[in-house]
Amino acid sequence: MISDESAVLLERRSAALVSLVITMNQEYESVTMIRENLDEIPCFELPPSFSINWYEPGEEKSWVEIQRSADQYNTITLELFDREFNRNTESLAQRQCFLIDMHGTAIGTATAWFDNHNGLPYGRLHWVAIVPKMQGLGLAKPLLTTLCQRLRELGHRRAYLTTSPERIPAINLYLEFGFAPEIKDIHDSEVWDNIQNNIRKKRSRT
Question: pTM of the predicted model, to two decimals?
C-alpha cells in the first residue's frame, strides 16, 4: 500500500513529466514562411573584416559547433548534419556557406537548400545561425542576402523556410526580406496572431 507521502511524490513526478512533454511540444512547434519569387532581393554588404566561405569536406564540425551555440531548441549532432544533407558534398559546396570573422573563425552558417513544398520545387533557407556573441553586429542581413542570391543563381524561382514562433528577431528579419507567413488553417492563424502580438509588444518596448 502506497503511503500518502509516496502518493504525493508520485503525483508531483507525473505532473512534472506532463509539463516537460508540453514544453517540448511547444519548443519544437514551427511556422513556415514563403517568398513566392526571388526578385528584388534586399542587398546588404558584410562589414569589413568579415567574409563568406563555402563548404569544404570536414566543415561539418564547424556547422555542429555553430548550431549548438545558437540553437536552444534542437539536439545538434554530426548525425543530424548527415540526415539533413545526406552527405551530399557536391551540393553542399554550392549551397552551404560559413560566415568568417577577422580571425578566420567560422561564426555563422546558412544553407541554400532545396525541397518540395506543397508539391512544388522550392529553394529553402535552412539552418541559419550565428553564434550568440556575434549577434546584433549587422551580420544576419548580409548572410540572408548571400543565401537568397545563391538560391536564385542556382535556378530557384521561390523559397521557403521554417522557424520557431519564439524566434521573434529572426521572424522580423525574414519579413523584411519579403517572406510571408504561410497560413493553412485556424491553428496557423492563431499562432501568427500570437507572433504579431509579440512583435508589437517588442516594438513598444523599444
Answer: 0.84
